[in-house]
């Protein structure tokens, strides 16, 4: 069982006792807007989502982000075990802007074995630049932006892809989404969110 502690946080596996905090986070429209699933409408729906994503998952790095003072979940963080090594995270709105997610992600990265995770990827909706700021603080570098018809919400979303090479292979590229999605661009710095994003240089 993976448990990681920092100055302010405990990263640990979710339990069924985390349901109230998990449900509140998932049902917040400001949080769910950037999540790849619809908000659970009932406590039973939230429990099913918690069970599917965390309680029944064998993955080692799907963790609740908890305050050390209370051991209550204020968010989640995970790294996919597939070839993408995708870093994902979310946090309750009351705890935004306090550096908690950067602290949690830095601790998780320090714990991940480089041999199993030689690189990490992460994506964020261009309308959620604060998520991208976390990626930048982790040392991840911007690669490209692509347009995806996001499911199951079936909405068009521009995602920015970031990459972190952890094994010294700084020539590595992760072009999977570039190849999958025909509408893609490399934005010129500074990265911006506006109506012209689809017209930036390819």
TrEMBL record:
Signal peptide (from-to): none
GO MF entries: acyltransferase activity, transferring groups other than amino-acyl groups
Stretches assigned to the N-acetyltransferase domain: 9-164
SUPFAM superfamilies tied to this protein: Acyl-CoA N-acyltransferases (Nat)
One Pfam family hit: Acetyltransf_3
Top-rank lineage group of the source organism: Bacteria
Chain segments annotated as transmembrane: none
Residue ranges the record marks as coiled coil: none
Full protein name: N-acetyltransferase domain-containing protein
Protein's organism: Levilactobacillus hammesii DSM 16381
């Amino acid at each position: 069982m993976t448990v990681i502690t920092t100055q302010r946080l405990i990263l640990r596996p979710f339990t069924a006792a985390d349901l109230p905090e998990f449900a509140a986070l998932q049902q917040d429209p400001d949080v769910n807007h950037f999540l790849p699933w619809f908000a659970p409408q009932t406590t039973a729906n939230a429990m099913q989502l918690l069970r599917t994503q965390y309680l029944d998952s064998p993955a080692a790095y799907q963790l609740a982000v908890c305050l050390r003072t209370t051991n209550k979940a204020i968010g989640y963080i995970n790294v996919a075990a597939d070839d993408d090594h995708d870093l994902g995270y979310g946090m309750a709105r009351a705890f935004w802007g306090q550096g908690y997610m950067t602290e949690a992600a830095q601790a998780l990265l320090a714990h991940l074995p480089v041999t199993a995770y030689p690189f990490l990827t992460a994506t964020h909706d261009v309308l959620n630049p604060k998520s991208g700021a976390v990626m930048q603080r982790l040392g991840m570098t911007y690669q490209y932006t692509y347009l995806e018809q996001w499911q199951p919400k079936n909405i068009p979303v521009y995602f920015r892809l970031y990459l972190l090479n952890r094994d010294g292979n700084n020539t590595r590229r992760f072009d999977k989404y570039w190849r999958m999605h025909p509408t893609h661009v490399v934005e010129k710095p500074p990265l911006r969110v506006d109506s012209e994003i689809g017209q930036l240089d390819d």
